[in-house]
Amino acid sequence: MPRLTLIAAAAALAILPATAFAQEAGGAAAGAATGAVGGAIVGGPVGAAVGGVTGAIVGGALSQPDRTRVREYVVREQRPSVRVEEDVVVGSTLPGAVTYYEIPSDVGVKTTYRYSVVNGRTVLVDPQTRRVIQVIE
C-alpha cells in the first residue's frame, strides 16, 4: 500500500507543472490537467487517467462571454431543434442522426467543437465522439 501512495504522489508531482500551464491556457487542457492531479491523489495512476479524461470533458466548456456569442449566433441562425429521448447532459452521447454545425470564426469563438440544437437546447458537441461538452443556456 505505501508503494501505491508513493506512485500516486509521484504522478501528481509530475503533472503539477502541466496544471499550472493549462490553467493559463484554459479549456480542455486545464480540465484534463486538473482532473489528472485530483485523480492521482485519490486513485493513483488509474485515478490520474480517469480524472484527466473527465476533466477534459468539463474543461472544454466555453467561457461566459463565448457562450453569449454562440447563443446570439444560434438564435440568428434559427437551426431546427432535433428531438431525442435521452437526457441531454454534459457527458452524454447524442444519436448519430443529430446534425452538428460549425461555429464560424466571425462569431469570435475559437473551438474545434460543433453545436446542435437538441430538445430546444443548444449544446456544444465533440463531433468525433458525439459527446455533449456543454449545454449552453
Describe the structure.
Strands 1-2-3 form a three-stranded antiparallel sheet. 52% of the residues lie in helices and 12% in strands. It has three helices and three strands, in the order αααβββ. By secondary structure, the protein is of the alpha+beta class. It folds into two domains: 2-59, no CATH class; 64-136, inner membrane protein cigr (Nuclear Transport Factor 2, Chain: A). Mean pLDDT is 75; it is low at 8-13 and 15-26. The chain is globular, with a radius of gyration of 17 Å.
Fourth CATH level, the homologous superfamily of the largest domain: inner membrane protein cigr
Give the end-to-end Cα distance, rounded to a whole number of Å.
45 Å
Low-confidence stretches: 8-13, 15-26
Largest sheet: 3 strands, antiparallel
**Shape descriptor:** globular
Strand/helix succession:
HHHEEE
Q: Give me the secondary-structure category.
A: alpha+beta
